[in-house]
Amino acid sequence: MARMKSEKLFSLFEELAEKMSINIVQGKGDFIGGMCSVNDETYIVINKVKPIAQRLNVLGSEFSKLNLNNIFVPPALRNFIEDMQQDIFNE
């Protein structure tokens, strides 16, 4: 199976975040990014000046920590997230 284009994967992450009421915030600065909560709102902050592969890795890593069992996740996106989980376990 050919790897899905990065931009498409990114938009699937945005759709998943919306379904889960998670806000994706893209900012510029000297940071990598990650998940945080403010006033009962959940945010994943990503650095928009970093390469898209790095931004996808932040999203994949953060979503891999969440329970996605009862949420439809497109297979390509689920595979990407599961690959992130494997990488975390293998470190």
Textual characterization of the structure:
By secondary structure, the protein is an alpha+beta fold. It has one domain. It is built from three helices and three strands; from the N terminus they run H-E-E-E-H-H. It has a three-stranded mixed β-sheet with strand order 1-3-2. A hairpin with a 2-residue loop joins strand 2 (33-38) and strand 3. Helix 1 packs parallel to helix 2 and helix 2 packs across helix 3. The termini are far apart. The mean pLDDT is 91.
Number of strands: 3
Oligomer: single chain
- What number of domains? 1
Proportion of beta-strand residues? 15-25%
The value of Rg in angstroms is: 13 Å
The termini sit apart by: 26 Å
Show the helix and strand layout.
Layout: H1 6-19, E1 22-27, E2 33-38, E3 41-47, H2 52-63, H3 75-90
Parallel strand pairs: 1-3
Antiparallel strand pairs: 2-3
Helix pairs in contact: 1-2, 2-3
Summarize the model shown:
Helix 2 (52-63) crosses helix 3 (75-90).
Keywords:
91 residues; 3-stranded mixed sheet; 46% helix; alpha+beta; 3 strands; globular
